[in-house]
Every structure is written in C-alpha cells, then in structure tokens.
Backbone:
C-alpha cells in the first residue's frame, strides 16, 4: 500500500513499473507505514529468502507466520473509527485472506485497487525488460531511508487523521491512511501534494 509520495508520482502521466530490477531489501516494495494509537507502525510483507540477486517479479511471499491476520488486525484497530474505513473493508479484506504467491502480483493487484478507490486514471504499464534509467525515474527517490524533503515535486498537505490529536499530522503514510480518513476527497489531497513549479 504505497505512500502519498508514490501516489503523487502517478499523477505525472504514464507510469512504467519496473518488473525486471533486482529485489532490494528494506524498501517500500514489501512494506508500508500506518498510524495507530501507538504511533507509526510499519507493516512488512515477509518474503522468502533467496539468492542475493533475484528479480522483483520472482520474489515469493513467505506465509510461515500468519502476517495477513496480524496486518489485518492492526489495520482494523488503527482505522475502524476513521470516517471511511467501513466503506473500504470489502475492498481490502481479500488481500488479507487470499494468498498470492508472488510479491509483485500482490503489489500490482493492490495498486489496481488503490488507484481505482482514489479515482486516479493514470495509465500504468509494466516494463518489458530492465530499464537502466528513464525520465522521471522514482525507484531510488521513494525509500524509507530517504527524506521526503529530497523530492522537490512533493509537498504533503495536512488532512484529518484519527490519531492526529495525539501525534500531530503525520505526513506521507500509506495511501490507506488517506483513504480511511478522507474517502472521496483523497484524490484532491494527492493532487494538492504535488508541488507546483
């Protein structure tokens, strides 16, 4: 469930998702961050340990632990009192009940659902081979280790958050946070977060 910065990039025209890059650990490819009563919590989809170099499209999800149940319980606890969670429960629940074999397939299906729910009409395609670099390459821009202020085209705007009174506004969380708190207004918030040049 990508963050707001990722979704701000989807507004910039045709998007190509790289499916032939090597999987990189400690990235948003298998994690997101949500706001709970205990603060920001990362939700990480565990993956099977493989050789040091494996294409992102070939990474398998590890179901040794019941991460789906844990993630869903955490999401439910965090957002059940949000204004719009009840409207999206049936859209998200299948991702925590059905088992996808590959992380890439899970991510693509989740992205399809999220773009539909936010009202984004961006044309998204998959790379047909490894692209060494191309215009507006965001692969190394949107990472947990990089400060969002390094992105001159992204400026998150505050919106209502369930635990905002306790922690203040927490920018650039998973798009799930925005959807559950703002509902149909999510597209407008995403659009406002794109820094005007």
Residues:
């Amino acid at each position: 469930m990508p963050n707001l910065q990722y979704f701000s990039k989807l507004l910039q025209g045709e998007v190509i998702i790289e499916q032939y890059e090597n999987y990189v650990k400690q990235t948003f490819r298998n994690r997101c961050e949500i706001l709970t009563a205990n603060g920001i919590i990362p939700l990480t989809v565990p993956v099977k340990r493989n050789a040091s170099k494996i294409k992102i499209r070939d990474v398998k999800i590890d179901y040794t632990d019941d991460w789906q149940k844990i993630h869903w319980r955490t999401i439910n606890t965090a957002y059940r009192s949000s204004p719009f969670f009840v409207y999206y429960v049936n859209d998200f629940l299948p991702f925590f009940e059905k088992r996808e074999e590959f992380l890439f397939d899970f991510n693509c299906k989740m992205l399809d659902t999220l773009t539909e729910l936010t009202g984004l009409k961006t044309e998204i395609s998959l790379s047909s081979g490894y692209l060494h670099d191309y215009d507006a390459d965001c692969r190394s821009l949107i990472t947990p280790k990089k400060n969002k202020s390094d992105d001159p085209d992204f400026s998150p705007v505050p919106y209502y958050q369930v635990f905002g009174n306790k922690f203040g506004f927490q920018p650039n969380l998973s798009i799930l946070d925005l959807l559950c708190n703002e509902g149909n207004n999510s597209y407008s918030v995403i659009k406002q977060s794109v820094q005007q040049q």
